């Protein structure tokens, strides 16, 4: 690993000041992704600002929203009674990701910032527009079994790797950022980006900004929710396809519904057309099938990942059925 | 062309020059940079490029003071500096769990943690589990149930298993498998590992 300058800070304000001083600095949270990328030479920041002592670990109900600090660990969030009671979908998604060891140190902010696991991104001998703009994409005509089927570009077909973010986008979360001009808030669905012509950018966080917390509005999906992750191993593997499903039912009628998919796009993929279709309808397998079909509009395989064109709708239907039968 | 470049460099500030310079130059210039940082109001601990960072850490109830490059992983610090080689380097990328240790009681992959991130922390490694000559109940159970073959993953498995029981995630074989999934065993001793954990959990021993 190329050596770097190491700084430690205990306040968000000084963390931000330090970041603004140096464009080649990066924040260090749990480090489970960043340190790995540095070991592989994918990234080589000149400075790491250790923010593990910045007091942003709160998990609390504020008015009608649950605030989750950027430095709360994945374990702390997944096991918090408030999250398990009010946002079980988030808890399940977190526990579907990584391993107990990684979740113990990985943070909410770091989870949002983690890079794709595309093999071409990790292999510095290979072309990758995300790692090195303009070098090409090895995956489009290469090994692309894990890759995207939605929102792809001719520059990049990598997928966003998080499970937590799939639940958060489904739950209409918001992200609070500290900026030089004070705080700004953006919708979680607008935090991550599609690859387009700038696959090097995973998200809309600016270079001088810091994730402070995530806010999740209370909802009525706790009773009928499910996070279904389909992967190559029973545990501790990235998703081939995952679906976060939340249903608000009156009898068998769908009053409200949330659906988002992971493993299929460069960002957490919210299924709004399926949601719109299902609202007000009966929670039947036939309607779930129709919703799944609608969700696949515009999907495109790249060879090795063609199976996702079948797996994705099947996972949507299964997740909805499992969410429904939870009650 | 070359001479004008040289001239340009000579006009750079010491700070700019430091960023562009080689390792040796960076070390030579450290004091000036350190002073500059000390002037700022930020409550930061400062280290110049390639400077070693002071580290206070407790490993297996023994306090250590060290001076260490920030890029050194906790795993390498334990193995190479403290010669505690019970903790194994498997993949070195957080994929296998062989390097699992406890940091303030929580299991972590020591390969993906920088030693300097563990300032003031209490680390327990496999060497710290037994009480003198008396093996930890989990170590005894692994032997009894043949929870290993080649043994390379074993210290990580045992550290993870102890944490799994302490966390309350050992209530069924399925739950144990799920919460032990961060520890890979290429010999495939999984059923026996689960047997060992079940026994320790059901035995109610103080782990």
Automatic annotation (TrEMBL), chain A:
Domain FAD-binding PCMH-type, first and last residues per copy: 1-221
UniProt xrefs under InterPro entries: CO_DH_flav_C, CO_DH_flav_C_dom_sf, Diverse_Substr_Oxidored, FAD-bd_PCMH, FAD-bd_PCMH-like_sf, FAD-bd_PCMH_sub1, FAD-bd_PCMH_sub2, Mopterin_DH_FAD-bd
Keywords: FAD, Flavoprotein
PROSITE patterns to which the protein is assigned, alphabetical: FAD_PCMH
SUPFAM superfamilies in UniProt: CO dehydrogenase flavoprotein C-terminal domain-like, FAD-binding/transporter-associated domain-like
GO molecular function: FAD binding; oxidoreductase activity
Protein name, UniProt field: FAD-binding molybdopterin dehydrogenase
Automatic annotation (TrEMBL), chain B:
SUPFAM superfamilies tied to this protein: 2Fe-2S ferredoxin-like, CO dehydrogenase ISP C-domain like
Alphabetic keyword roster: 2Fe-2S, Iron, Iron-sulfur, Metal-binding, Oxidoreductase
Annotated Gene3D superfamilies: 3.10.20.30, [2Fe-2S]-binding domain
Any Pfam family matching the protein: Fer2
Listed transmembrane segments: none
Ranges where the 2Fe-2S ferredoxin-type domain occurs: 53-129
Gene Ontology molecular function: 2 iron, 2 sulfur cluster binding; metal ion binding; oxidoreductase activity, acting on the aldehyde or oxo group of donors
Protein name per Swiss-Prot or TrEMBL: 2Fe-2S ferredoxin
């Amino acid at each position: 690993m190329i050596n770097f300058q190491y700084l430690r800070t205990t306040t968000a304000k000084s963390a931000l000041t330090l970041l603004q001083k140096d464009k080649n600095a990066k924040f260090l949270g749990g480090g489970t992704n960043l340190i790995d990328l540095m070991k592989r030479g994918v990234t080589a920041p000149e400075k790491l600002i250790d923010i593990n002592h910045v007091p942003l670990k709160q998990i609390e109900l504020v008015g009608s929203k649950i605030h989750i600090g950027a430095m709360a660990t994945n374990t702390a969030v997944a096991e918090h009674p408030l999250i398990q009671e009010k946002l079980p979908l988030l808890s399940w998604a977190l526990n579907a990701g990584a391993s107990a060891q990684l979740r113990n140190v990985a943070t909410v902010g770091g989870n949002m910032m983690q890079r794709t696991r595309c093999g071409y991104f990790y292999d510095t001998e290979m072309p990758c527009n995300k790692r090195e703009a303009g070098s090409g994409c090895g995956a489009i005509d290469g090994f692309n079994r894990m890759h995207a089927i939605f929102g792809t570009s001719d520059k990049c077909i990598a997928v966003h790797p998080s499970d937590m973010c799939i639940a958060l986008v489904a739950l209409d979360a918001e992200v609070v950022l500290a900026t030089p001009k004070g705080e700004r808030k953006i919708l979680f669905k607008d935090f991550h980006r599609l690859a387009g012509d700038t696959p090097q950018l995973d998200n809309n966080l600016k270079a001088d900004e810091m994730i402070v917390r995530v806010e999740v509005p209370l909802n009525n999906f706790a009773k009928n929710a499910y996070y279904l992750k389909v992967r190559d191993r029973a545990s501790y593997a990235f998703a081939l396809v995952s679906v976060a499903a939340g249903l608000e039912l009156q009898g068998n009628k769908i009053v409200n519904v949330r659906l988002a998919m992971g493993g299929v796009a460069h960002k957490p993929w919210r299924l709004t057309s399926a949601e719109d279709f299902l609202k007000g309808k009966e929670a039947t397998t036939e309607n779930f099938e129709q919703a799944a079909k609608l969700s696949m509009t515009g999907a495109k395989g790249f060879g090795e990942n063609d199976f996702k064109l079948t797996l994705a709708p099947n996972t949507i239907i299964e997740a909805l059925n499992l969410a429904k039968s939870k009650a | 062309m070359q001479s004008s470049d040289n001239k340009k460099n000579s006009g750079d500030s010491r700070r700019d020059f430091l960023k562009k310079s080689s390792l040796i130059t960076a070390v030579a210039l450290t004091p000036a940079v350190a002073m500059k940082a000390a002037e700022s109001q930020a409550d930061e601990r400062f280290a110049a490029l390639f400077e070693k960072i002071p580290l206070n850490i407790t490993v297996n109830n023994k306090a250590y003071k060290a001076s260490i490059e920030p890029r050194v992983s906790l795993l390498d610090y334990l193995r190479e500096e403290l010669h505690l080689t019970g903790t194994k380097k498997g993949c070195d990328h957080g994929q296998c769990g062989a390097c699992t240790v406890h940091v303030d009681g929580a299991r972590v992959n020591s390969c993906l943690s920088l030693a300097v991130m563990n300032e003031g922390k209490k680390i327990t490694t496999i060497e710290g589990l037994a009480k003198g000559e008396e093996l930890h109940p989990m170590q005894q159970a692994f032997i009894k149930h043949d929870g290993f073959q080649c043994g390379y993953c074993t210290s990580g498995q045992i550290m993870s298993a102890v944490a799994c029981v302490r966390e309350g995630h050992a209530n069924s074989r399925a739950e144990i498998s799920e919460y032990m999934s961060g520890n890979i065993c290429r010999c495939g001793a999984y059923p026996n590992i689960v047997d060992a954990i079940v026994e320790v959990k059901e035995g109610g021993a103080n782990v």
